[in-house]
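User: Run a structure prediction on this.
Assistant: Running it now.
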Amino acid sequence: MSVFVVVGAGPVGRETARLLAADGHEVRLVSRSGTAADGSVIPVALDARDGDGLAGVSIGAEAVFMCAMAPYTKWPTDFPPIMEGVAEAAEKLRARLIVLGNVYGYGSEAPSPLTAAVPLAPTSIKGRVRTAMWERALAAKVPALEVRASDYLGNGAGSIFTLMTLPSLLAGMPATVSGDLDALHAWTFTKDVARTLVAASRYSGEWGRAFLVPSQHASVRSLSVRFAKLAGIAAPDLRVLSEEDLEALGREDELMRELPEMAYLYRRPCIVDASDTERLLGVSASSLDTMIEDTLRKD
């Protein structure tokens, strides 16, 4: 039995902790609120910015999973100190560091399909934040890996689609969309992210690299139609927002203000090639229907 520490109790962090505990390991799930995943996971209430405190509650840990999420509107201010605290703790513990990231760091000029080997070249504020976080992990005096996801689907998942489009769609109202309705887009299941994180922690090859999470690809239009069918509701009425519409929404809503800089991800195909993850880690993507059904699930 090994000891693992998971920082962040969102959908991915909780599932990662659950999977590790199911394998018979001692797992400590760290969050500011001390959220519990299930009875076999030890909840710990702690602010991860406190590197010394995090090291203190993580004694004996073989690896630390950085799954914490800063508020979407506060990434530049809130993410760096969290990453610093987690990296400091991993260094003090001499524990391996596995970071949950995303594809923002590749930037708007990145090729499609994306592979993990594509150099990071961020073109957005959020992309630069994510890139800096990975650079801090690489600079740590311990082995580090990053697992990069695309837009989330799954119970409790937060993404542009689940926050902006899905609520209206499920209510039978016109649903707003940003970008090309028919461009293929990578959708990542939160439970597949957790499975990739756990598999990455066991990777026996050279660390200091990234893995993309195996994902399913569908246009926003086809995804919306599938959601409507599985939810048993009428076909969706989708309305594309212009850049001016997005800017107007941003003047009224703090979260909507963050969307324009990431809108490029929906203006053209965003395809993820995670074949090396499938080959090296043995993880494959769940079906799109499985992702949708879990997103629709009511706890």
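The chain has a mean pLDDT of 93.
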